Predict the 3D structure of the following.
Amino acid sequence: MLSMPCESEAGALIALGALRSDLERATANHVGTHFDLLLRMCRERMAVLRRGGESAGFSSWDVRNVVEETCWRFAADNDSSDLIVLEDSAHRLQIKRGGKLIPNPNGPCRRYITRENALGWQLHNLPLPQITAGGSALGQAVYSALPGCCGPILEENLRRSYDGLVLIGQGAARDTTYMQKLYAVGFVSDEQRFPLGELLTLHHSEKKYIRRLRFLNERVQEDSGYEAWLVVADGIPALLAAERLFPTSDIIGVCNRDAAIDTIDQLRDRLSGIVRYYSDMNIDSCMSGSLPTGVLLRVLQRKT
């Protein structure tokens, strides 16, 4: 936990440092696990529908073919662990004929996702697993020039998404006050400005973009994406959400001492309830230099 005297962009900057470090790691991508995520999402949706759950909350399509830019939905008869059956999202179970709705006599067109072709399919509301021809890879020169970062970047990671790093904060839409703050600050290199929000790939959700960080609103109740190896929680409510959503992940919580008293009390009560399961670590083993004036650090490690 990092204690700051007031509200700042410290949490987002920590997340950027982790993102930059991930660009050096060969395992920081989902090339080998994308099919497993597709399969899990398919089974979760089918389970809801088989229980008679409402389909109104679902999109009209589940996956998009990256090359053809066609949209498909998971078929009901998905029972294999190595094959995902899709059907045309435009197909309707009923059609109107003679002023009446009747069952559609024609079945839907079908496609199949395998482990071999999984990278060609993009889940609804998630980025591309890896960039395709004509897409926008991240700029290597920009990330190489970040202050204090000197490790070699793996070029292939600039073209691949990674959701193992999570940032939790106050707002998700770009026009929120929280996000505007992150886009208002940044770095300058060769007279070119790079906003912090863009470096974090916060809103790279267009068809031909990838992202290297997953952002969650602190009010989210659940998360069904990839497991996170590191969660950066920006604020006390975000830290409480991170501890609930990602109980097995490493968490960096950035807490502001000028937060509302009742918010600070919530954190104190939560820590009082779980601190017996943790032991304090020497902060000298976690950082190479000294902390700035007014900044405090406490490192807790879960007891085994």
User: Anything to note?
Assistant: The first strand starts at residue 2 and ends at 4. The helical segments are 10-22, 34-50, 140-144, 177-184, 196-199, 236-245, 261-274.
